[in-house]
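Fig. S4 source data, part A: sequence.
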Amino acid sequence: MIITAKELSKILYGSVEGDPNVIVDRPSKIEEGGKGTISFLANPKYESYAYTTTASIILVSKDFKPAKPISATLIRVEDVYSCVALLLDKFGNKVEVSQEGISDQAFVHPDAQIGNNVSIGLFSIIENGASVGSNCTIYPQVYIGRNVTMGKNVTLHPGVKIYHDCVIGDNCILHSNVVIGSDGFGFAPTEDGSFKKIPQLGNVVLEKEVEVGANTVIDRATIGTTIIKEGVKLDNLIQIAHNVEVGQNTVIAAQTGIAGSTKVGENCMIGGQVGIVGHITVANGTKVQAQSGIASKVKTENTSLFGSPAIPYSNYLRSYTGFKQLPDLIKKINDLEKQVKSLSESSDLNKTD
């Protein structure tokens, strides 16, 4: 796509500051730039690059106040990140389908139902009773188990595995090596100290517009359904256990683990390496800082948590500030104790005199 700053500003409902006729044909990172590229500044940590970048256009927020002159044309917008997402789509930042139709080296069971305009790659397998909606793209080496139901416009990247009876909604994207519907971690202790496997008889349901990052695993329910609600976005390397429910439009970063039967609310933001115990609820709008541990129910909506076990975010920061000063504080306390002891001894001597 080749487009001018003026045309871009109309698409993004922004305003141009600089040359409205400058032309760009591709996006770039702000630290790399390049003539004919458009970059963006959303994180203040990268502001210094705005003054040195060779990009032709920079997307900035409406309230951005440059500290130095900027040679690039600016387009001021309300929400930089949402505009970047739109632009990447416009510039065609999508992997092209490597094949059309059903590969001769794929296996599709005669009793599987395949919709219109479906692409199925090399060595992919679709089992008995599975249903694949129209306009789905199934890359090579994907496994779709017995009685799986897939909606329309689903994309399964190489190596995805979907176990039997699971449901994938419209417009979902599953990245490489995602596993949907593996057994939940259920074992009963026996008298001899060993563990007996508890059958996992439920399934997993992904509602529409869910995206799941590479190597993430979502376990099937013991009984009932593990459910990922509409609009949820999951990063790479996440573990979601049996009977968990994740509410609409929640986003979860990499290496997070959610234990069984926990219910995470809507519009939550969960950082990387967060651990959440089982059998609790997490209120709508909860924000959890990376590497925190949620050990009990979160009752209040729209709270920010930090630490392990997690406490209110601002409390954690104040506590951590104190923690870093503990060696000095201990020394001061010891010095004060010595002074108090010395004063007490002096007072006792004066009384004796």
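Fig. S4 source data, part B ends here. The longest strand covers residues 57-61.
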